[in-house]
Specification:
By secondary structure, this protein is of the alpha/beta class. The protein is 32% helix and 21% strand. The protein has 2 domains: 223 residues, TIM Barrel; 55 residues, Alpha-Beta Plaits, CATH 3.30.70.20.
């Protein structure tokens, strides 16, 4: 199965001057859509492949013009129940009407040419190491668009980094590796059932794709450290041993944070973070030391 090239795609965000998404200064493009449902996801706006409506209650001044203009009568003056998501058809008239930007469209279709113009604007700042990073969501969810971005980037002399969960058809992975310089690969859990409990899918395909990626390109493993889920010594050691089996020398530990809390509220969703306790510094240091004992380079947070 070959990837069908796509000339446009759904983008959540374009982050300029990113310094933690690969080496050097980078432009990180967040593609919308993800096949995983990680319970702790800090970017819920990237899960759906479609546009969504953010409502930011702190910006709302109660003018009421949005209520009047909504053709579906999906809005009210009640800040706690402002948007009836079942009625909303995402016409985005409220976003255009609100003078305080209390409404915002999340997810915009970009043509390949328009996106490449944005990426190439930053080329003077990349230096020898910087370039473009595709993230998400899962960038391989829009494989045809991701492939075209990387092809065009390589033609322009721009380095490419893929920030991925590895959850995609193996044929897709092989094809996009031809245009990828570095892979930042999330490994959530080594146990297939635990992986399914946390993400909605098991890890067989992901681990198989990890081997393909590592056989073709340089890989760094990212480990989201989730308390009482994947922070046991058994799992940390298994992750380290798997990295070594791939020839991977780096694991970046990313402790759970709750910075996505507001995003859930903006989408009218319940935050999942009430189910998770915070990790203290000693627990993070313990996890780092367990992985380091296997002879790997370890960072807390992604430091290139």
């Amino acid at each position: 199965m070959s990837i069908v090239p796509a000339s446009s795609g759904m983008i959540t965000e374009i982050k300029k001057f990113a310094t933690h998404d690969g080496p050097g200064i980078r432009t990180t493009v967040f593609l919308k859509g993800c096949p995983l449902r990680c319970r702790w996801c800090s970017n819920p706006e990237t899960i759906s492949p479609h546009s969504q409506l953010y409502f930011l209650p702190k910006r709302c001044k109660g003018f009421g013009a949005c209520v009047e203009i909504c053709p579906e009568k999906a809005l009210s003056m009640d800040l706690d129940a402002k948007v009836d998501r079942k009625r909303c058809t995402l016409c985005m008239k409220c976003a255009a009407e609100c003078p305080n930007s209390a409404f915002r469209q999340v997810g915009e279709v970009y043509s390949l040419n328009d996106l490449m113009r944005e990426i190439e604007k930053d080329k003077p700042f990349y230096g020898k190491e910087g370039g473009v990073t595709l993230s998400g969501g899962e960038p391989l969810f829009q494989a045809g668009f991701a492939l075209q971005i990387f092809r065009k980037s390589k033609e322009a002399g721009i380095s490419t980094v893929l920030d991925t969960s590895g959850c995609a058809a193996s044929e897709v992975v092989r094809e996009i590796m031809e245009y990828t310089d570095l892979v930042l690969l999330d490994i959530k859990h080594m146990d297939p059932e635990k992986h399914r409990q946390g993400t909605g899918v098991d890890n067989a395909l992901i681990l198989r794709n990890a081997r393909i990626m590592a056989s073709m390109r340089s890989v760094r493993i990212s480990l989201p450290l989730i308390p009482d889920y994947n922070d046991s010594e058994e799992n940390l050691s298994a992750t380290a041993e798997f990295a070594l089996s791939l020839g991977v020398g780096y694991i970046d530990i990313n402790p759970l944070h709750k910075l996505g809390t507001d995003k859930y509220a903006y989408l009218g969703l319940e935050s999942p973070y009430g189910a998770y306790r915070s990790l203290d510094k000693l627990e993070v240091a313990r996890a780092r030391d367990i992985v380091k004992r296997h002879g790997l380079e370890v960072t807390v947070g992604r430091m290139m």
